[in-house]
Amino acid sequence: NVNLDVLELIFEQLVGTDLVAAAGVSRAFLAGAIPSLYARIEYTNRHLKRADHEMSPFATIAAHDHLGIHVKRIALHAAPLHRDSKIINPAFLNDLARALGTTTNLRSFVCTENIAPPLIPHLLDKHRLTHIRIRASLSSRQIALLQDRTGLQCLSLDYPSWNVVDILPQWAANMQKTLVHLTLYMSQDTDANVLNATLAQLPRLRGLHVIGCSRISHITVLKALSHTPDLRELSLTIFVSLP
Predict the structure, then answer these.
(1) What torsion, rounded to 10 degrees, do the Cα atoms 157, 158, 162, 163 define?
(2) Could you say which of 31, 120, 134, 231 is the most buried, measured as most Cβ atoms within 10 Å of its Cβ?
(3) Torsion-angle region of residue 159: left (phi > 0), alpha (psi -120 to 50) or beta?
(4) What pLDDT is stored for residue 211 in this prediction?
């Protein structure tokens, strides 16, 4: 006889198998647990091993689109291949795209696999989205679409292509009032000029992480910090030059 709102608050404190076990107690418990069960959707190598035998969480949401409203965070760290090929399973991508279309309350999207390009259009209408981490091997058209995505607070770009790096200062200017964390990971095209031009647009930045960017020395990063007086977090790669 516990009110549904109270059940939802209780289940917010449970995670993992405890949450799943509680959801199986009764229909009332299941109804109360659903918002927490679908609040964070993660797909990793653990799920990949069972891909041939289990429906993916994205297929579940695509088939029951009323569940999409509960999804606040999506993290993709693996993607199944099509049979014995090196091509990502098209059925998986289709389910993922359809599921994304239903996630009106999405706040965080992480995709470390190289499958972001076809998903970009499905992120444009997510007005509550504040955190994006993607493997940013994008075309000029794709980055132009993503550039219109304003309101971001955290942006992480893994292996960004040259055209992403080229437009980064302009994109930073569009996010000047909101962006507080920026991560550049394994960029071979970002240099001192791009870094300075980008940070000059982000005086409110509080976290900066420049990892594995071979054309940016730690000295360059430290000098560029003059643009970010409110910085509280910093991580960088120090490249040792051998004689």
Answers:
(1) -40
(2) 134
(3) left
(4) 96
